[in-house]
Amino acid sequence: MKLFSNVKRIILALSVGFSVQSGAAEPTKDEIETRKIMAGLFSSLTTVLPLSLNSDDFSDPKNREKILSELGKMRDSANAFVSHTKRFDGSYGYIAKSMAGDLKDIFGWYKKGSTSESRYLLQQVTDNCVSCHMKLPDPGHAPRMEAFFKDISIAKLSAPDKTRLQVALRQFDDALSTWEDMFKTWPNPSELFAMDTLPEYLKVLIRVKGDTKRAQKTLEELSKRTDLPKYMNREVAAWKTSLANLSGVMSVVGAELPRAEKIIKNARNQMDFPMDRAGLIDFIVASGLLNRYLLDKKIKADDKSASYYLLGITETLIGRSTWLSQTDYYFEAAIRAAPKSKSAKKAFDALEQQIIMQNTGSSGMNIPDDIQENLEELRKLVHR
Ligand code: HEC
Questions:
Q1: 56-83 per-position pLDDT tens digit
Q2: Which residue in 74, 199, 261, 370 has the most C-beta neighbors within 10 A?
Q3: Where are the domains of the chain?
Q4: CA 166 – ligand 1 centroid, Å
Q5: Amino acid 10: pLDDT
Q6: Which residue minimizes the CA distance to atom 27 of ligand 1?
Q7: Residues contacting ligand 1 via CB (< 6 Å)
Q8: Closest CA to 305 of 283, 335, 346
Q9: Which of 84, 129, 148 to mutate for ligand 1's pocket (most ligand atoms within 8 Å of CB)?
Q10: pLDDT per residue over 89-131, tens digit each?
């Protein structure tokens, strides 16, 4: 049983140019359950989020009962989702757990009257929704939410906040339009590059929509902006070349791991320095292939480990810069999948370095106990 049993069908349908209609395939029991939990989550989120955009509304005693009840429901739905994802492998469980932790805190803060902490966290919680929804093709099932986006407080959101919410609610077409307007009109193009917007837009087009032509067109238009700094021109040119080279890759089913490996290797050869975003498209395509590959229950442990290790590598460049980093998770998953494999050893070295870097400041190294314990457990597993 798979979470997305119809994903391969969708990929094939997308690749031959059919649009996938809702209800085209009988949903599995798991899909029905996922959608049911999601419906609970988004109905509460769309109720409390508009109120959270104004601190007076959020802390107003007359809204307290309603907000508390919706936050409680969200916390419960997230817990139910953690149990549901336990039956599947992959990073969903990790993200679901992170979201459940956030929602427990959001409810707890609100209940004891710390509404500003609660409000702040609530506005970040959509990062979890976005991280999951950007991984795989869209079966086109999500309900339209036009009325919600017309709500005065939501309509006023800045373009980056609006796209985040649109993706959290799986309104992908609307998100793409919002981004494209933004690329044309945003006054300072350097800001577009510093924010997560371009990688996010490209992830949705490549991994969720499988539409490299539209990405090519947008980059073409972006490169015509006369105010682009030189470094951006260089990146956009590299992305256009990668898109042209990789346009058919996502639609081919099979041999995902060796193909992803090759794409990553080639990209790294093109990159002038480790974090050079010239390799962005290649890493997005490779990660899309790997996400899909990991849905297959029958893959060998070594191959699973190799896939997670490579996902960890891609994530260092294409991951969201805020809140929820999946890099550590992927390296840990690579170790646990096959502790004696070569990729597990490489993943351990990468993870250890990363943890040390994250926890060392001007006052020296200070790794929290739970993280250190987990690291030692992993060290034993890989015999490092
Ligand atoms: C752990 C991964 C994960 C997280 C976290 C997550 N989702 Fe989902 N979401 C999914 C999956 C998987 C689907 C099902 C896609 C499909 O097959 O239709 C889905 C579907 C949806 C749908 C469409 C439901 C339908 O009937 O088609 C909405 C709306 C949604 N999620 C909203 C949210 C919101 C809002 C959040 C955050 C508060 C969230 N999701 C968090 C994985 C996740």
A1: 999 999 999 999 999 999 999 999 999 9
A2: 74
A3: 1-169, 186-293, 319-384
A4: 12
A5: 47
A6: 142
A7: 3-4, 31, 34-35, 38-39, 41-42, 45, 85, 92, 95-96, 99, 125-126, 128-129, 132-133, 139, 141-142, 168-170
A8: 335
A9: 129
A10: 667 888 999 999 999 999 999 999 999 999 999 999 999 999 9
CA–centroid distance, residue 238 to ligand 1 (Å): 33
274 pLDDT above the threshold of 60: yes
In this structure, the residue with its CA closest to atom 7 of ligand 1 is 129
CA distance 126 to 351: 26
